[in-house]
Design a protein that fits this description.
The protein is mainly α. It has a domain of about 55 residues. The chain is about 75% helix and about 0% strand. Helix 5 crosses helix 6. About 0% of the residues are buried. The model has no long low-confidence stretch (mean pLDDT about 80). It comes from Fuscibacter oryzae. InterPro entries: GTA_holin_3TM.
């Protein structure tokens, strides 16, 4: 095994000393891996609790009304824009009068309207982006056990094969 193996004797003695040093080091500096695993477990527990809360939604008439109102802005904006074109073709004089009225709206109010519309649609897009199926959330669904063998690491596989001899 090398100089340490010759000084200490068997590979099991080297492993025992390594585990002891690791245990002592974790007293002074907590394991970052363990902290991430515990954080992931806490996150999953919170998500499971939130999911259980909304698993069986009992929608009242008011809830259905609000859900319906939340679905109205996009179609109203689309059909309203088409309606403006139709209105301009049917009555150009009245349309021109309305546009002169819109020209009198101060610029900061247009910025405010743009911000409201952008945040509304941006929030919707963000919601659907985060909740689409198959999206990685950044946390594993099952925390991995860092003490188990990792077969995807060739260096560890070679090292374990050398210890077994």
């Amino acid at each position: 095994m090398g100089v340490i193996g010759q000084i200490l004797g068997s590979p099991s003695a080297v492993s025992a000393i390594g585990d002891t040093v690791k245990g002592v080091a974790e007293v002074f500096t907590p394991s970052a891996t363990k902290r991430m695993e515990l954080s992931a477990k806490a996150q999953m527990a919170a998500l499971d609790e939130f999911g259980a809360e909304f698993a069986n939604p009992s929608l009242s008439g008011f809830d259905r009304l609000i859900n319906g109102l939340n679905r109205l802005p996009r179609p109203l904006l689309a059909f309203g824009t088409i309606g403006l074109f139709i209105y301009a073709m049917i009555d150009p004089q009245a349309f021109a009068g309305r546009m002169v009225g819109l020209n009198a709206v101060p610029e900061p109010l247009w910025w405010l309207l743009g911000a409201v519309v952008a945040f509304y649609f941006g929030a919707r897009e963000t919601f659907y982006f985060r909740n689409r199926p198959g999206t990685a959330t950044g946390f594993p669904s099952q925390p991995t056990d860092s003490t188990g063998p990792q077969d995807d690491n060739p260096a560890l596989t070679d090292w374990r094969a050398g210890q077994a001899q």
